[in-house]
Amino acid sequence: MLHGGVSVDRATRPGAPHPRRGAAASSANERREPSTGPGDDRRDHPLNDEVHFIAVNYRGSSALPAYLRSLREQDSPSWRMTVVDNSEDRQETRSLIDIAGATPQVKIVRAPRNLGYFGAAHWLTTHEDTVPATWTVVSNMDIRLATPTFVTDLLNLDGGAPVVAPSVTAMPSGRAQNPYLVSRPDQLAMWRRRAMFANPIIGQAVVLAGAAKYHLRNRFTESSRAQRQAIYAPHGSIIPIHRRFFLAGGTLAHPVFLFAEEINIGEQCHRRGLAVRYEPSLKVIHQEHQSTHLLRSWRVLRAQGEAARYGQRLIAGKLPRAGSPLGTPADGHGGGQHDNRGGPMRARSGTG
């Protein structure tokens, strides 16, 4: 159920038991977090052993069939999907509902306005009255799971690293997008990024130059990334987040409309002592730039500059201390797309 008086369209009836597992199986999959001692407010909190995919849409309904196909091919039924439609277009919402069809595990929700990428995911998780999933996967629409064991493999992880970075292959370039940031960027790197994106024209040139660089780069250098390892931040196209992140005070609240979601998540984990891990066994295909494109609108370029300023101030310690919310979500007024890719920050991840 969603609360708050917003307009909602659904592909499934709210409150219905999981049709593929049945009411009994659904109940069996629901358990309670063990008590960690007197006064622990989690001991009576029901838990749901499934993966909840939150896909944020901005006029990207054409990408949904491939994503859904990869979910339907999973060897485990322990998943559900919510598509949050930011498009502010009833016809786009209707297209999403038609594509979802009779798939009982899929729900289409229309956002009250264009909330941005993390803004939409945060809105959903704070308005949805459902049992928390073991893993919440926030993603773009232009994603498809590359193996039928993605859900099983993710549920087999114990949450020791509450945020994981799957192996993401960008298409059509074929380059690896994770690990995105192996180490925490220093203040000088963030100042350079802020300076480059302060001017929208220079920012556009940086995006195009970055795309050319990765197109020309030798793909054999990607083989060094096969190892499972601790990293600072995952690529924002798809981020699996364990419930432990939220129980530790983590949040999807994001104070800027677009971009810098990776720094937000990485810094929250850094400040709270939570691990982030690259998991190459989790394989994903990302058909990137289906929303923003390489030639970006003036509004998106301005959002990129705002995000660069936010990231620099966050790393410099000029935003709230560890344990405090990193900010409130942007109000999301105005258009824009929500595929957060591009920029020189990838050089910090060991990609060149």
From TrEMBL:
Biased composition (Basic and acidic residues): 29-46
Record region (Disordered): 1-46, 319-352
InterPro entries linked: Nucleotide-diphossugar_trans
Official protein name in the record: Glycosyltransferase
Organism of this sequence: Micromonospora solifontis
